[in-house]
Amino acid sequence: MKQRLLVSIIIILAVILSYFSYVYRSSTNAFTQQMSDAKEYRTDDYRIAIAFEDGVPAVGNNTAILQLRDAKGNAVSEAKIRGQAEMAAMGSMPSMRAPVIFNEISPGFYTAEFDLAMRGEWPLKLQISKDNTSADLSFDMATGRSSLTISGGGVSMASEMPVNDNQATFPSTPGVDLSSNKQGFYTVGKYLIKVALLENAKLRQGDNPLIITVQDSQNNALNNIDIRLLVTQSMTNPGAEDTPAQDNAALVTLLPSTDGRYRGTIVLPQAGDYDFAIDVSSELLGHGDLILTGQTGSSELHAATATPAGISHYTCSMHTSVRAAAPGSCPICGMDLVPVSKQQTQSGVISIDARRRQLIGVKTATAEYRELSKSITAVGRIAYDQHSASEINLKFDTWIGELKADFIGARVKRGQVLFTVYSPELLSAQQEYLETRGRLASRGSDDSLLKAARSRLSLWNISSADIRALEQRGRPIEFLPIYAEKNGVVVNKSIVSGSYAKAGSTLLQLADLSTVWVEAEVYEADLSLLEKGMSATVNMRNLSEREYPAKIDYIYPSVNPLTRTTRIRLVLDNSDGELRPDMYAQVHFNKELGKRLWVPEEGVMIAGETRVVFVDLGSEGKIKPVLVNTGQRTKGWIEITEGLSGGEQVITSGNFLIAAEAKLKTGIAQW
């Protein structure tokens, strides 16, 4: 009985194990089949392939499958794989993140579910770690796009092309054969180029001697041609800092050749992955580029890309920041890359045929010398003439008696009583003067003591007429009158009848409004056109039918840092009293500029501090972007001070489309 039970248990376990083995083999085969078309990438320690269950990432829930192997191709289990997809912030919309956490479902196979909230670009970052090894990778991922493009942390294994493997296959590039021949040469345009390390040495940190052999298509050695070798540290090297490209003098020494072989020494600052760009050119055979990749510790150099003769690079019509050495798709939008020729890059000239000109509405105008003037309008306000302003204050403490000029705006005339004052000091001074005068009357009016007493009253602003009245009256006056010294209007008042005033305080301010100032604000860009004595016309908003002739009386020496304007002052006659302080005014100037070179404003493209015009060369629809310096603007015209000549035809309509074409095909620095 026990034996029968034991046999039954063994049979059941065998069935269960067989079932799980079947499930495991089925799932592994399914994953292997699903990953068969996935691109594979490598780092120093891992080989990674990623696919999506539905073929492409989509809005909503997604399932990703990742296969992880080591450098020898063995499955890697129990690895920790974490990351996230992130859509960058756009305008007021904040950035969005989707966590991506992989779980192992069979040896070397991992799956993760993640949710994408909307359509667009979702760059994916992953961190892979196991034991003491780790890798950080970045991919360009977007909804609706099946393929991932690695942007950091590793390289695509599909792009590796070993130089010493004559059976290797290479991406097709028009005009370029990237498969090396039996001697290891690559056909680049009209050149055959071979690069080899001396004695099959391995790349290392420090000096690395090499030989670059250049031949023509008939295997003839090419000597004394222009050849450059540029080296950059690859951004795909995990954790490596980007090393900027340096030219021959700084990084690579190439010795002259007599047998088509150019000997040089590559100096690598640190261990890692490197890109080596060989640039060859001659008047007879034109231009050719070949880019190789290599890694310290390896003797192999891998051909990455090459450009056909005459082609500078490939770029995207929508994203001109993308520059590639071979045809392909834009990593941002997926559009096919278009070629940009060396001639276009160097000359900046583009060609637009007559049909396309008509479609984009190209119009031209002639750069010509013209006599023009510029009108300047400034906003200002009326202010009283500070030259005629005066303040009324006293040299003794006092009480105000009767106030005659009792409101702001009151008109007063010279000699008119403004107010009366009472002061014990003043009363005492009057009494002392009378007593001194009575005691010294026999000495005559020229007596020194008598003069000193009279001078004391004068110094306290008591007029000569009041002193004579005091002498005739023979007794002090309690409330002494204070008179206006000139005609004017009360513009400020700080006293009332009966108020107390300290010595030296300002009691009244008077200004003569028979002439007024206009203080206007002029932008600093127009200051060079203005000068003292220049004629202007002024009108008021409430007196729009009347114009006042004026001249610039003064230009203030400072600029307002907030408005970037400078004040100017003009003087107006106001004998009729129509102009009142703080009224708004408009000031108009007209400056003759003389004969200068002008083009319509629509013909100048402005990019920051840069000014560009597109000159129509007239030959086969050729258009050339030209950097210019500009001066004054007036009446729809802009002055050209440098860069153009009179009579040249300038594009005035369709500039933005032409600018996009120029940026696409020439990569000119100003854009």
Automatic annotation (TrEMBL):
Keywords of the record, alphabetical order, are: Transport
**Does the keyword Transport belong to this entry?**
yes
Pfam families in alphabetical order: 3HB_CusB, Beta-barrel_RND_2, CzcB_C, HMBD, YtkA
Domain CzcB-like C-terminal circularly permuted SH3-like intervals: 599-658
What residue stretches are annotated with the YtkA-like domain? 44-126
Cite the InterPro entries for this sequence. Answer: 3HB_CusB, Beta-barrel_RND_2, CzcB_C, HMBD, MFP_Cation_Efflux, RND_pump_MFP, YtkA-like_dom
Determine the domain of life of the protein's source: Bacteria
List residues of the CusB-like beta-barrel domain.
515-592
Q: Where is the Heavy metal binding domain?
A: 313-340
Stretches assigned to the CusB-like three alpha-helical bundle domain: 425-476
The protein's matches in NCBIfam families, at most eight in alphabetical order, are given as: RND_mfp
Q: Of which family is this protein a member? A: Belongs to the membrane fusion protein (MFP) (TC 8.A.1) family.
Provide the protein name: Efflux RND transporter periplasmic adaptor subunit
Q: What is the scientific name of the source organism?
A: Zhongshania aquimaris
